[in-house]
Specification:
This protein has two helices and five strands. The chain is elongated, with a radius of gyration of 17 Å. By secondary structure, the protein is α+β, with helices and mostly antiparallel strands. The protein has two domains: 73 residues, Alpha-Beta Plaits (2-Layer Sandwich), CATH 3.30.70; 33 residues, no CATH class. Helices cover 28% and strands 18% of the residues. The two termini are 26 Å apart. The strands form two sheets. The chain has a three-stranded antiparallel β-sheet, with helices on one face. It has a two-stranded antiparallel sheet with strand order 4-5.
Amino acid sequence: MKRIYSAQDTLMLAHLHNILRSHGIECLVRNEHLAAAAGEIPPIECWLELWILDDTRMNEASALLRRALAPIRAVEKPWQCAGCDEEIGGQFTQCWKCGANHPSIRE
């Protein structure tokens, strides 16, 4: 069993948990009730953690999470399309002109 993600945001962690489960990757959430201890222990130690049960699926799970988080990370700055050299707004994951994926998305 390996930890794959940790976050303070309950909704994001639940979303990522659902993505993994929808792809048949068994996982569990830890620290669900630890928020009450914040202040007594460091806040980051109270963050929710997402763990996968089958270590052999770690690469697959990591790829799924990278793909799911790519639009959020991409919003930070515009990117240049490798397919047609068009400048694309950071909130988009595909080129509007030629349909090429953002460089952070690998298929």
